[in-house]
Design brief:
With 97 residues, this protein is α+β, with helices and mostly antiparallel strands. The chain has two helices and four strands; from the N terminus they run E-H-E-E-H-E.
């Protein structure tokens, strides 16, 4: 299982758009922690498995990150919006709850 973390300025429909992209990328979401900071930044964690069984290959991580980033900034365009999308192997984390 892997953790995909997405941090971006929140907007209406963001969660829908990101989860649609995860589905299109052939990821299965097993669990999610969705939150918005007081500064209106979405900080979302998705616990996923890869239906292609290609994670943690760098090319697959880059593909997923690129697609999620493109989807998350769709409404704002590229300028003025920062987004972070990263994937971590859950089994390699020092602490699991």
């Amino acid at each position: 299982m892997y953790i995909l973390q997405v941090e971006v300025e929140d907007r209406v429909g963001l969660l829908h758009d990101v989860t649609q992209e995860l589905w299109a990328s052939e990821l299965t979401v097993h669990r999610a922690h969705i939150s918005t900071s007081p500064a209106d930044t979405a900080v979302d964690l998705f616990y996923v498995t890869d239906e292609r069984n290609e994670l943690p290959a760098e090319s697959r991580v880059a593909e997923i990150s690129r697609n999620v980033q493109r989807t998350a900034v769709r409404q704002f365009g590229e300028s003025g919006t920062s987004i972070a999308a990263s994937i971590t192997n859950f089994n390699e984390m020092p602490y699991k709850s």
